[in-house]
Amino acid sequence: MKSGNRELVDRVAGEYVLGTLRGRARQHFERWLVSPQVKAMVTSWEARLVAFEPPSQRVAPPDDAWQEIERRLELRKAGRKPFWRWLGIGVSLLFLGATTTVLLR
User: Fold this and answer.
1) 75-103 pLDDT, tens per residue?
2) For tag attachment on the chain, is the N or C end more exposed, with fewer CB atoms within 10 Å?
3) Is residue 45 within 8 Å of residue 77, measured between CB atoms?
4) Which distant-in-sequence residues (6+ apart) come within 8 Å of 41 by Cβ?
5) Is the pTM of this model over 0.70?
6) 46-65, pLDDT tens digit by residue?
7) In 3-state terms, what secondary structure has residue 61?
């Protein structure tokens, strides 16, 4: 790799690691990751930038968080299967069975 290209690829690798490389440029760069040289540049950028990453700690959500999510998404209502839905599934299965029987004869 020429030194000018190496500098360009190194800059693009930095953008890739930072997450600022978007769209087609990112897709194109990801195809370059098969190259050991490019992969080494990405690894180098990751090692340099890891010091800037804030330490992460596990935070337990409040006890009522899932209940609130379910309430907002109305998941409890969606979880109930009304009679008509089961009837429709049964009729569909009967129709499928009858069609299969007719076609196989």
Assistant:
1) 666 555 678 888 889 999 999 999 998 88
2) C
3) no
4) 9, 10, 13
5) no
6) 999 988 878 778 888 888 88
7) coil
